[in-house]
Automatic annotation (TrEMBL):
CDD domains: TPP_TK (cd02012). The keyword Isomerase does not apply. Its cofactor is thiamine diphosphate. It comes from the Bacteria. It comes from Anaerosacchariphilus polymeriproducens. Keywords: Thiamine pyrophosphate. Belongs to the transketolase family. The keyword Plastid does not apply. This is Transketolase. Residues 7-264 form the Transketolase N-terminal domain. InterPro entries: THDP-binding, Transketolase_N.
């Protein structure tokens, strides 16, 4: 799949984020939009997965450690064929399998239930270690928020991963610099992020989270790195793709109303039209 095709799918994933959170009247659009490109790349190019067999033993694993960005994960899974796209409109509804945070027992394609920040990465590290112990060649990917890495459990997991040389693990940090209470550098700064992961014996790569060429190069470099886990620092824009949401902290956990949904979809329609002209 080429870059243009990935860009088009990522735009559809962003549409899914908007329509699902609007339908639910709740959710977390900002961080879902910032993560849409890397999640699209993972599910449509990077990972060994099969929508017809979500539990196949040799599949690559993905853990959305920042579980509140479930709308982006659900949209990617739906467009990849794990479940019907129209089910996105049931987000957070009573009786829906698409809860506010991912549920591995109910959602096809979800490898770990997440939501309590800091815990998902520990599960991912455990999966990677299990692969090494059992001699399996699957890879494990986990996505964290930059505010999430203020949690101490993240660094316990990082210490374990580096010590055990888990080169089948890729930890991604969605570094949009905003969390629910404001900018991360004023709430409880985790900077410098790169140096922290390097201290825990990670190979570290920093990229533009919205550039598919850089995303592809980073995952290739991660695959070629031996004897160390890889951390990819994704320099992203919260609310990416929707003009009035970009870099605005209030869109961390607020769903768009009818008028805002209309405006957001108009923005994404323009992006889609521009991509169709290429």
């Amino acid at each position: 799949m080429n870059k243009l095709e990935l860009q088009k799918i990522a735009n559809e994933v962003r549409r899914g984020v908007i329509v699902s959170t609007h339908s639910a009247k709740a959710g977390h659009p900002g961080g879902s939009l910032s993560a849409a490109d890397v999640i699209t790349y993972l599910y449509f190019k990077e990972m060994n997965i099969d929508p017809k067999d979500p539990q196949k033993p040799d599949r690559d694993r993905f853990v959305l450690s920042k579980g509140h960005s479930a709308p982006a994960l659900y949209a990617a899974l739906a467009h990849r064929g794990f479940f019907p796209v129209e089910d996105l409109l049931t987000l957070r509804r009573i009786g829906s399998y698409l809860q506010g945070h991912p549920d591995m027992k109910r959602v096809p394609g979800v490898d770990m239930s997440t939501g309590s920040l800091g815990q998902g990465v520990s599960a991912a590290v455990g999966m990677a270690k299990a692969g090494k112990v059992c001699g399996d060649d699957y890879r494990v990917y986990t996505l964290l928020g930059d505010g999430e890495i203020e949690e101490g459990q993240v660094w316990e997991a990082a210490m374990f991963a580096g010590f055990h040389e888990l080169d089948n693990l890729v930890v991604m940090i969605d570094n949009n610099n905003l969390q629910i209470d404001g900018s991360i550098d004023t709430v409880c700064s985790p900077y410098p992020i790169e140096e922290k992961f390097e201290a825990f014996k990670f190979h570290v790569i920093t990229i533009d989270a919205h550039d598919f060429d850089q995303i592809e190069a980073a995952f290739k470099e991660a695959r070629e790195t031996k004897g160390k886990p890889t951390a990819i620092i994704l320099k992203s824009i919260k609310g990416k793709g929707v003009s009035f949401m970009e870099n605005e902290v209030e869109w961390h956990g607020v769903a768009p109303n009818d008028e805002e949904c209309k405006r957001a979809l108009e923005d994404l329609d323009k992006v889609g039209e521009a991509l169709c002209q290429k």
